[in-house]
Amino acid sequence: MADMRVNLCGVELKNPVTVASGTFGFGREYGAFFDISRLGGISVKGLTPLPRNGNPSPRIAETPMGMLNSVGLQNPGVDAFIAHELPELRRHDITVIANISGNTPEEYGEMCEKLSAAGVDMIEVNISCPNVKAGGLAYGTRPELAAEVTAVAKAHSAVPVMVKLSPNVTDVTEIARAVEGAGADAVSLINTLRGMVIDVKTRRPILKMNTGGLSGPAVLPVAVRMVWEVHNAVKVPILGMGGISSGSDAAQMMLAGASAVAVGAATFADPFAPVRVLEELEAICDAQGLKSVTELTGAVQPW
Ligand SMILES: Cc1cc2nc3c(=O)[nH]c(=O)nc-3n(C[C@H](O)[C@H](O)[C@H](O)COP(=O)(O)O)c2cc1C
Question: Where are the domains of the chain?
């Protein structure tokens, strides 16, 4: 059987299949379906300095081969995560990635300090958040803002920092290069694509926030394309996600350049999706006679 271990910027994962932030809570709910220690890692629900209730409902809409969400970072806050959720997660043999969102670079710095002191394995910096000081512009859409928040996170973190890129940009490689230049140890992509669904009878958007983020199988080709572009643009490793719901999807993402992958919305349709993706990926590696799953990374043969 192929060796499924992968290394993501110095952090060893027992296999390349992780679960994406916001789609697996803090792991508690899914423990009823399978042993979460089977997974390579968990990126926890996006944390903020203070607890948040999130956006008003409706905040989920079904779309063709996907879903739109405007959950709005509902979470108990970084201190409650460290006090109650992290010890619970630590009872499992799983790499813990803390996903963080802030309104200012200082908020990111403060959370990085607390989370590295608490012993998470890696920090994933969500830059698809508005920078309050820059008039609400999302960090992830401007190279200089993305670089600034990356540098602050790095300066306050004792563990590797992975920056999560937004797909809502013209050229994702520009942002990837900026965060690599500011010291990011890895990048993850893609976050959700902005979308809108309208109820024709009421003429109202389904989501109370009017717009939301699209994810699920519909976004896979966009994600694979962006991972491939970023792989060709930077040297740091990539955690690839967006639309993965099978081992073949995961293999595509790795061939495009990802060192590891995350399963997100697919878990809502099938709670066993992350382990199924892992088993199917193992079967693909075996069928192709690979010694190590790492042989897939970046091995696409473009025309
Ligand atoms: C309901 C929901 C909540 C999410 N919350 C977060 C979050 O808190 N932080 C974050 O960085 N990404 C968040 N995401 C984005 C996912 O982590 C992932 O990047 C995206 O959904 C694409 O993967 P998928 O198509 O497999 O779902 C969320 C996605 C969904 C569907």
Answer: 6-55+70-194+214-296
> Does the annotation mark 285 as catalytic?
no
User: At a CB cut-off of 8 Å and minimum separation 6, what does 271 contact?
Assistant: 30, 33
Q: Please tell me the distance from the alpha carbon of residue 79 to that of residue 35, in angstroms, as a whole number.
A: 26
CATH class of the domain defined by 6-55+70-194+214-296 = alpha beta
Give yes or no for a contact between 21 and 44, defined as CB atoms under 8 angstroms apart.
yes
Tell me what the pLDDT averaged over the chain comes to.
Answer: 96
Q: How many CB atoms lie within 10 A of CB 30?
A: 21
- Is 17 near ligand 1, meaning CB less than 6 Å away? no
Residue with CA closest to ligand 1 atom 19: 191
What are the tens digits of pLDDT across the range 171-202?
A: 999 999 999 999 999 999 999 999 999 999 99
Instruction: Determine the Cα–Cα distance for residues 174 and 171; give it in Å rounded to an integer.
Output: 6
245 lines ligand 1 (CB under 6 A): no
Pocket test for ligand 1, best of 21, 47, 69, 238 (most atoms within 8 A of CB): 21
Residue 136, SS3 per DSSP = coil
